């Protein structure tokens, strides 16, 4: 990520993942806090300044209302007493708004100032640099002008300025100039700015600390996963990662990893067992071959009959080893989903009719019966399913006496499951052996298996074929009564 490309002196390794997360969220929250701070400060400033303008406009309206209400009295007073009269009427309002100052003038040269600062502030030199009319607004019954407040600066202090005039009924004009000191507003905004910056810094520090702590706690299972993974070797694959119990994404990851470790443990155990069993199974034919070679070396040179028997025996052992190697390769291919691309929708009933017809043709020593044959559709590999069914029939043929019965059936169990059954009237299997017969190289009776040409891989191959089809192989048997092998396959 781009964090790793940051040129930080002294840092050679990439940032840890929780550092990246904390750094990213701190950056994001800093941007959010900064934007929020600027927006709040800007809107607060506008609200304060707008309130100051509104205060001046209200005062201006108050003056106009005062003139309207006291018009008869004003007209009865001499011109030099009118401004004093008006100031007395305005005093209750001004005393509660100490930052507002005003100046009254008339067209006869009389004036009144509520504050001495107006003497220096409202002079032509100070107002000349500002482009606005000193008395922009007039007030009469027909006036509908929008009042606007201007701003000016004097002695490093900001002021708002509002100027208007009012024409009395006798023709005299009263000029009104209102000034409001914005110092209190700017002091308040400065305090607000400092307060918001302090809160933002404290909030950012709290976010950093909580972010580091929260991220470490959140990612703690990942650290435990890493430590557990370091400790897992082929000798202790029984280790499992403890779930957090939160049922979140990390728990899902832990469950997946534990399942993977379980599969690895099973694979290693199968590998060890396979190597052990294969070594044992290959040792016997290799010993036999070595024995015959020794016989040939000692006595077979001058005895053609002994030589021919030895060569034939060696050939049979080699064929047996080739068959075992081919079976092992087939199991490996099945377990690695080598045939997964050849799955199509199949009608099992058609396959069974074909298989039982072939059995009846090549094995006249047994009676083959098709008990029932529903149209059952599954998705699978035709060649593998035929091999599995033939394998079960072949086992029944080997261990069923001549003249015995072997039955084949297919039925639809429900909307999802189809069942294929092979039943024979053979010698049966001891109940204590039923759980082991699908293991590789396992033989109930080693001598009998060799006599029938078995290597102990037949049922293991069949079980692998059924498993790759997401099905299940169930075998039940009773000694002397026969064996029943059922294949349960999903329709999809």
Report on the structure:
By secondary structure, this protein is an alpha+beta fold. It folds into three domains: 72-181, 2-Layer Sandwich (Beta-Lactamase); 232-336, Helix Hairpins (Orthogonal Bundle); 340-490, Histidine kinase-like ATPase, C-terminal domain (Heat Shock Protein 90). It is 54% helix and 17% strand. The strands form three sheets. Strands 1, 2, 3, 4, 5 and 6 form a six-stranded mixed beta sheet that branches. It has a five-stranded mixed beta sheet with strand order 8-10-11-13-12, with helices on one face. The chain has a two-stranded antiparallel ribbon with strand order 7-9. A hairpin with a 4-residue loop joins strand 10 and strand 11 (417-424). The two termini are 43 Å apart.
Sum up the structure in keywords.
492 residues; Beta-Lactamase; Heat Shock Protein 90; 3 domains; six-stranded mixed beta sheet; five-stranded mixed beta sheet; 13 strands; 54% helix; rod-shaped
């Amino acid at each position: 990520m781009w964090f790793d490309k940051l040129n930080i002196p002294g840092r050679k390794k990439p940032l840890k993942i929780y550092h990246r997360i904390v750094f990213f969220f701190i950056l994001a929250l800093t941007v959010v806090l900064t934007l929020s701070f600027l927006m709040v400060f800007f809107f607060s400033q506008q609200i304060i300044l707008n309130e100051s303008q509104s205060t001046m406009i209200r005062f201006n309206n108050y003056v106009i209302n005062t003139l309207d209400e006291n018009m008869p009295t004003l007209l009865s007073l001499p011109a030099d007493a009118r401004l004093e009269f008006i100031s007395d009427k305005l005093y209750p309002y001004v005393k509660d708004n100490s930052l507002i100052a005003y100046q009254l003038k008339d067209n006869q040269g009389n004036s009144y100032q509520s504050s001495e600062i107006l003497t220096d502030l409202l002079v032509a030199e100070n107002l000349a640099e500002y482009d606005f009319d000193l008395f922009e607004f007039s007030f009469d019954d027909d006036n509908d002008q929008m009042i606007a407040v201007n701003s000016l600066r004097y002695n490093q202090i900001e002021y708002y300025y509002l100027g208007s005039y009012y024409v009395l009924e006798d023709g005299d004009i009263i000029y009104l100039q209102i000034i409001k000191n914005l110092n209190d507003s700017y002091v308040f905004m400065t305090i607000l700015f400092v307060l918001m910056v302090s809160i933002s810094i404290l909030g950012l520090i709290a976010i950093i600390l909580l972010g580091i702590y929260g991220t470490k706690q959140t990612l703690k299972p990942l650290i435990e996963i890493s430590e557990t993974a370091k400790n897992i070797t082929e000798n202790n694959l029984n280790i499992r990662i403890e779930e957090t119990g939160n049922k979140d994404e990390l728990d899902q990851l832990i469950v997946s990893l534990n399942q993977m470790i379980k599969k690895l443990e099973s694979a290693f155990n199968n590998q060890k067992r396979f190597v052990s069993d294969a070594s044992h199974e290959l040792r016997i034919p290799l010993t036999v071959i070595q024995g015959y070679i020794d016989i040939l070396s000692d006595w077979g040179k001058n005895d053609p009959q002994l030589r021919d028997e030895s060569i034939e025996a060696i050939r049979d052992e080699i064929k047996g080893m080739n068959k075992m190697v081919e079976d092992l390769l087939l199991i490996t291919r099945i377990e690695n989903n080598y045939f997964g691309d050849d799955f199509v929708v199949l009608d099992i009933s058609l396959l069974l009719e074909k298989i039982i017809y072939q059995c009846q043709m090549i094995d006249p020593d047994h009676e083959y019966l098709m008990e029932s044959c529903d149209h059952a559709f599954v998705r699978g590999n035709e060649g593998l399913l035929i091999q599995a069914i033939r394998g079960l029939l072949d086992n029944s043929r080997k261990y069923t006496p001549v003249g015995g019965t072997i039955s084949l059936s297919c039925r639809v169990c429900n909307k999802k499951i189809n069942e294929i059954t092979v039943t024979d009237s053979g010698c049966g299997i001891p109940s204590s052996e039923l759980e082991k017969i699908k293991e590789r190289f396992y033989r109930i009776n080693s001598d009998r298996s060799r006599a029938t040409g078995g290597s102990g891989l037949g049922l293991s191959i069949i079980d692998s074929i059924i498993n790759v089809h997401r099905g299940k192989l169930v075998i039940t048997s009773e000694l002397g009564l026969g064996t029943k092998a059922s294949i349960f396959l999903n329709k999809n």
